[in-house]
Fold:
Amino acid sequence: MKSIFLVGLAFVAAVSGGQAAEAPDLSTCKDIHREMMLAANDAVPATLVAAAGALGAIPAPVGSDATPAPLVPPVPVALDDAVIKANAAGSAAGNIYSETSSDKIGPSTALPRVYVPNHSSNTVTVIDMNSKKVIETYKVGRGPQHVVPSFDKKTLWVNNTADGSKMGSVTPIDPTTGKPGTEIAVDDPYNMYFTPDGKLAIVVAEAYRRLDLRDAQTMALVSSIPTPTCEGLNHADYNADFSEIVFTCEFGGVVSGRHGQMVKTEAHGEIGPSLIKVDLKSGTVSGELVFSKPGMPQDVRLSPDGKTFYVTDMMNDGVFLVDAATFNETGFIFTGKGAHGLNVSRDGKSLYVANRGSNRMPDRHSGPGSVSVINFATNAVEHTWLIPGGGSPDMGNVTPDGKELWLAGRYDGEVYAIDTSNGAVTKINVGIEPHGLTVWPQVGRFSLGHTGNMR
Structure:
């Protein structure tokens, strides 16, 4: 297996060595990619299982150079209430996504591009949204996970999580040129969101089980919010009035083992919360919810009427429904194997669910990936679009006109441009393990984070 790993490193180096006019042809290297991923999966130490129940302490990330960074004491942060109220009131009654509809497309100096972070290649691939051609691929920091539009829509932040080392960083991209700027050192930036007044970035430091509040422009650390019970602190969305933000806890219900994830039992660690909600002003976790079925919660998105959170679960193959007011589980919708990413249609009537085709991570390529379309009004799955030849649709976003849904193919070294009128798929080769891509520009007054949660 070591020889396979070395071959894989050589391939990563070839891909990451500089800019390229076209994406690498992965048709001959998918077997290498598969073996690298499965080797990583098989190498998970048994100590992780034994430690699964130790939820009370904030752990260091796994790795020989992973010394925990100093924890900044949680202190109340001064958010601008007037701005927050104005931003909340800016959405039309009954549809918090009213400002993200295609008829609100305005002039933009941003290039029409799709930015794809290739986690195991340490690169970002840039694709022309209209021609679907790769323009270039450039090197960024170690282990890029998501490309996150800033609150003011002026910067795209590449979150280089560095896989549990001390080398985490964020790379700014100028959307008017598509070019990267100078990296800024940031602890474990798995994902990023923003306070609803736009003042602070909320860096999801998953490995440290904490949220780091940083200046949205300079990334200087302001405060930290410990989330000690939330294993796999992950994705988030706000309620309608922005008073609270809800985060998923990916590993609260599973442990990692030699052959993938296993549902927790009494012998395999205490079951932690599936979701937490956080009061940013007080800097505290204000609520926890454990789902009726242990699993792997992934993405979360609020319904247009602001009443229900939809939460994908990769182990349970569907979407949990959570009452936004009471923070109680109210239902479940089966979608497909490995339910993962969520995106809202431009008209606010449908929810696109990316089903990654796998219940474990990492996994083999060409799985039974699909996209399910849920009708918000009825909670019925109206369509299921299969990825032809198999695939692993993950995270992404819709185009400004709503005619296409772009998703990263996590285990397949490709991205998918999906026609939202009929589910037809165009595949484009990128780097190894593409993850949270963003489509830019987007429609909306501001970005709350992730791959473009706009309102």
Notes: Residues 1-68 have pLDDT under 50 and may be disordered. The helical segments are 2-16, 30-42, 46-50, 81-89.
